[in-house]
Amino acid sequence: MLIAAFAPHLTNHDPIYDQNLASPLSVPEWARAFPQYANLPVNAFLLKGTSLASSTDLAYWNIASTSANVGGNSSRTYDTSTAGLLVRFDTTSILRLSQTLFYEWSAPCRFIASINLTPRNRNLSTTDLTFDIYITSGGNTYHILDPSVYANPGDASEYYSNFTTGQTYNVYADSKNVYVNLLATGSTMPTNLGGCGLPNAIFDGPRNITISYVIKSSVSTSVLISDPNLYVLGSAYGLLGTDDLGRDVWSQFVYGSRVSLEVGLLAAIVAVVIGTVVGLVAGYVAGVTDEILMRFTDFMLTLPFLPLVLIILTIIQVSRIVLAISTEFIIIILIAVFSWQGIARIIRSQVLTVKHRQFVEASKSLGAGNGYIIRKHILPNVMGLVYANMALTVPGAILTEAALTFLGFGDPSIVSWGTIVSNATSSITSLHAFVWWWFLPPGAAIALLSMAFVLVGFSLDAILNPRLRKR
Q1: pTM of this prediction?
Q2: Is residue 353 helix, strand or coil?
Q3: How many CB atoms lie within 10 A of CB 466?
Q4: Domain span(s) for CATH 2.60.120.260 in the chain
Q5: Burial class (CB in 10 A: 0-12, 13-18, 19+), 142
Q6: Percentage helix, strand, coil for the chain under 3-state DSSP, each rounded to 5
Q7: What is the pLDDT of residue 369?
């Protein structure tokens, strides 16, 4: 319950829409303590001195230029007060920034190389100013960025037609981009390089890697260069890893607890209210009313719950009935409608004993009406059973909701523990991956939460049930 209450404070990520936080199916970071996961990479920026604003930063870089004045004069001094490296290009000038690093982990499945550029004194076309990124690894050099990537109108994720004075542009090469793969390997899907393609070839085990940023200008201009980065999306992430879309499983877990508790508590409250009303009326009024209500209760008990609920939900989905309420609320209603019968019979049996006690007879003799007697004398004496049965109904509702969402009848826009288990099981089937960090936490949470409510219910029953209390 504390996890559900403090969910927004326990994670910064949206459980559904924040994707690609790390590589798909990343294990939890703490799992790297085990030998089989020890060399998995984590999310990391690999380069140093990326601000390019001081001599300390520039010490990490090898800077070479052809007809380019760095810092604004021919002596190539650096202005440490700027927000990066200010370069004044003469006609047909080239600046090359390169850095060599040691990569220590196994290969990731995705990386992003980027740099920020800001024209300072004139607008530039994509032919006036061009950017290339090269990565050298294992004796091979991979050309991963040029105008065919960032100036390609067919690339919806990154397209620049020109560069406007004063605006900062983040030019990047994403290893998932088909144009990047085509430029670097000649193939849009270089599976021959390994399961993750281009990242497998570049980051194939511990090795030295050199990344080079080449900026070319065909006109005289000044450009501010900043934040060159090489970012790898790790295969080990967070407290509970990621799912098949790179979403944070911990975020899904904490927000899913809200939905599971909401379904369990609301369904239990509605079921207990219905059962209590039916039990009170049937037990106190007796006669024909009792017979009708109890036979209807018996009829409801004979209905096969799960098949009937599945049929109703299937009809709603197949017929595409538009309802003003969510699928989760429909599930709550269905669980409540099929869960009150046992409560009604228990309350009725207790009412039958209470209504013949002396204080009830005394109230009748003083002229009290049936409503007053039920409200003031009968109901307070059965509330112990009401509380106990409510606690015992919650785990059944939670398990039922988990089962229905596991079978694919939940709301895909809402994350619950059942949804997480269902998605994880689908991944096991389709990807043949044993994603234990994905399905074990919600499965264990469902079992532990259900057990907790069962124990609370048994304890309340032992304390408040007169027959058990006498023992």
Answers
A1: 0.80
A2: helix
A3: 12
A4: 44-233
A5: buried
A6: 50, 20, 30
A7: 78
Q: What is the pLDDT of residues 217-236, one digit of tens each?
A: 888 888 899 999 999 999 99
How would you classify the pairing of strands 140-145 and 207-217?
A: unpaired
**Alpha-helical regions (H) of 214-324:** 249-285, 287-302, 305-318
Which amino acid is located at 468 in the chain? L
Give me the CATH topology for the region 44-233: Jelly Rolls (2.60.120)
What is the Cα–Cα distance from 377 to 209, expressed in whole angstroms? 81
In this structure, what token pair is assigned to residue 461? 């029953």
Q: Which residues contact 124 (CB under 8 A, 6 or more apart)?
A: 162, 163, 217, 219, 221
Helices (H), 107-248: 147-150, 178-185, 198-202
Cα–Cα distance for residue pair 109/296, rounded to 1 Å? 60
Give the distance, in angstroms, between the CA of residue 154 and the centroid of all CA atoms in the same chain: 30
Q: What is the mean pLDDT of residues 146-168?
A: 83
Structure tokens at 336: 């409540």
Residue tagged 């207990």 (tokens): 272
Is the pLDDT at 211 greater than 90? The verdict is yes
b vs e for 406-443, b when ≥16 Cβ sit within 10 Å of the residue's Cβ?
A: beebbbeebbbbbbbbbbbeebeeeeeeebebbbebbb
User: Range(s) for CATH 1.10.3720.10 in the chain?
Assistant: 249-470
The HSE-up count of residue 89 (CA atoms within 13 Å, CB side) is 26
Q: What are the tens digits of pLDDT across the range 84-110?
A: 888 888 777 888 999 999 999 998 989
Phi and psi at residue 226, to the nearest 5°: -150, 165
Q: Which residues contact 302 (CB under 8 A, 6 or more apart)?
A: none
* Whole-number Å distance between alpha carbons of 428 and 56: 49
Sign for the pseudo-dihedral over CA of 10, 15, 18, 20: positive
Rounded-to-integer distance, Cα 295 and Cα 299, Å: 6
| CA dist., res. 467 & res. 471, Å (int) | 7
C-beta of residue 197 within 8 angstroms of C-beta of residue 54 = no
Task: Give pLDDT, residue 1.
Answer: 65
Looking at the predicted structure, is the pLDDT value of residue 310 above 80?
yes
φ, ψ of residue 289 in degrees (nearest 5):
-60, -45
| Percent of the chain topping pLDDT 70 | 91
- Provide the pLDDT confidence category of residue 274 given band limits of 50, 70 and 90: very high
For the stretch 388-422, pLDDT in tens is 888 888 888 888 888 888 888 877 778 888 889 88
Given a cut of 90, whether residue 142 has pLDDT beyond it is: yes
**Mean pLDDT score, 119-139:** 90
Question: Which CATH fold would you assign to the domain 249-470?
Answer: MetI-like fold (1.10.3720)
